[in-house]
Amino acid sequence: MMRKRILSKEKLKGELDRLRHEGERVVFTNGCFDILHAGHVQYLNEARKFGDVLVVGLNSDRSVRSIKGDLRPVVSQDERAYVVASLKAVDYVTIFDEDTPLQLIEYLEPHILVKGGDWSEDSVVGRESVVKRGGSVRIIPLVKGRSTTNLIEKILTGYKNYC
Could you point out which of 36, 74, 109, 158 has its C-alpha 20 to 30 Å from the C-alpha of 147? Predict the structure, then answer.
């Protein structure tokens, strides 16, 4: 069942066009979602409230390595997609290989673009495209101290202290 929620961008485009025709408002967000934690889940739950359908653009393994370095991702793109698609708030997941989701945002044409509080509205990739079509950008405050990088550091520190 979860695999039907993980679609290629082409199949997703067709589905979103159909849903938009039915009056549904499409919300888009993106990220690596490498080691899923409470901050991710809270963020996705909040993003879902801005519309009827929540789409997550998931950075591919190559894209994550380009952004985060050679030691990331910890979890493969197929496993990350499965976990994110399993969340109640998420309707669809699609994997993109570029370093930014700009091409994907322009292709899917969401009504609302959501990013975390580590972004200013002016710096959100895809903002111009969404706003030009009459859409909007929403920024969700980050959950303090909750990040995959912090989680990895905590694990490594604990491991070093154990050895």
Answer: 109
Token digits of residue 16: 């979103």
CA dist., res. 23 & res. 36, Å (int): 31
Q: What is the pTM of this model?
A: 0.90
Helix (H) or strand (E) holding 146: none
pLDDT, tens digit only, all 163 positions of the chain = 455 999 999 999 999 999 999 999 999 999 999 989 888 999 999 999 999 999 999 999 999 999 999 989 999 999 999 999 999 999 999 999 999 999 999 999 999 999 998 888 888 999 999 999 999 999 998 766 666 667 777 777 876 665 5
Under 8 Å between Cβ of 33 and 76: no
Burial 66-94 (b: 16+ CB within 10 A, else e): eebeeebbbbebeebbbbbbebebbbbbb
Which two structure tokens, joined as six digits, stand for 29? 């967000």
Task: Name the nearest CA neighbour of 95 among 107, 83, 110, 77.
Answer: 77
Domains contained in the chain, CATH given: 2-162 (3.40.50.620)
